[in-house]
Design a protein that fits this description.
5 helices; Glutaredoxin; alpha/beta; elongated; 2 domains; five-stranded mixed sheet
Length: about 140
Amino acid sequence: MENKEDKELERIKQAKLRKMMRSVASEKRGIVLNKPVEITDATFKEMIQNHSLVVIDCWAPWCGPCHIVAPVIEELARDYAGKILFGKLNVDENREVSMQYQIMGIPTLLVFKNGKLVERVMGAMPRQMLEPKITRFL
């Protein structure tokens, strides 16, 4: 009888260990949100619906001003991790969202609060100009 109980205890212990490992792995995946995440036509809707405040940087690899604003977006993503989700949408590869939101020039930042577009910021600008346009929605 004792052997059966030992096996049951071991099974429970292993199940709890697996659960703890999954939890730790989930927390580690959450750390990724301290930098911009890639957004695609396929993931766009889920991202804006599952996060209360989302800033999407609409850009393209060939765009010079986009490369100027990218480090600012990365800093903001790090500084506002857990409060604002920052994403990057390559407009050349994701035409559906680009057309839906009429992205005519890049860089363009789309700010969504509770799934609704609340701000559109066009052009590259320094952090001290950009940050208040985003953080006023916190």
